[in-house]
Amino acid sequence: MKKVTLAMLVIAPLTLINSSFVSAAQSNDTKQIIQKQPEHGISVSNAKREIALELSRQYIQILPTLQSDINRYNLTVNAEQVLQSSGVATKALHKSEQAIRSAKGLSTRSAQSSAFMRVENPNIVQFRLADASMLSDWQQGVLPLFAFEPAGNDKDWANIEAYDVDGNIQLLDVYQLPDRPVFVVELDKQQTVHEGLAVMREILAQNGDSAKPLKSVHLQRSASRTADKPISTTVINQISLQDDQEPWISGAAEVYAIVNGVNPSRDEPVLDIIEMPYLDYAEKEYYPNQVVIHWERYRWAAADMILMEHDDGTNYKELATALLSAAETILKSIPDPEVQGFAIVATITNGILKALPDAWFTNDDDFVDAYYTLQEGETYTNHSGSGGNARATFTPLVIDPR
Description:
By secondary structure, the chain is an alpha+beta fold.
């Protein structure tokens, strides 16, 4: 993804109208909600380091399973399945995965599925052959390396650590694809984001109805069909992201959106979390036709959208808490929201962005872009985000009751 800095954000003119209502002290206090938290990225990185080292030591045992599962159509395998199929003990993997789940604010407990059995949380660690160009050499017997994505901003990475089959450390270039096969120990981004966004929705829901996922909003049939009303929505028909030089180890992206506005019936922020699992790679057009805004949930028929990308260091519990606190702080600071009207929405968005650590605006694995003042009934064709990274087409869609 293209790196975006705060200086690149083109703030809508309406934002300036409300700037006097937001004090610097409030913004700084909200930002500290995240910044005072432990550096979870280090914990996740260390857990992946331990798995990579163990993988290198067990390579001979797991090789047959890897050979049967890795091919030109599939470069990724589930870590636990590989180890279990190879007869390798998975206790160390489970310990590392629990540490990762804890650091990311995900559930570490088994889920009760019936009175007779418990279902474990899905395994979120996987092994990926870094690039399809490595497949032939690996299949011909070239011994691979076992790497993991470092913590922090990729601009600060000096190198990529990897282990050979003897457990020795090898240092790889950050941007130059290695000339030998490399297996990357990584998180299953789609599963991690799916669970993480569920955590965020649960926390946001504690503030009322503000986090109901759009996919769970159903048409409620009344006793009388005449009481049913059309549902006004906005659909994202096309979207693409720009790109610049990215580390080879990062793999596909996992993007999600935060739609924010003001509750139509009370002075409270509304934050909807939207999964966008299809948005994997930059410089590629996607045509999801996905409903992203239900207008009955937003006052003044206006909302903003922030695009975010999964980051290994994100703790979803802390992120949701920080976003909600920022939005509430901004809204409470405005004496009379009705006087300002929908210009308030942009002010809330800016408060949310200010609550995020500065580093998130220079790391492509965090903040992607923002859309200010999307309005009900409007069509936006090839509409650029404020940072110039995203380009999308939004169209209105009215869903008639059956």
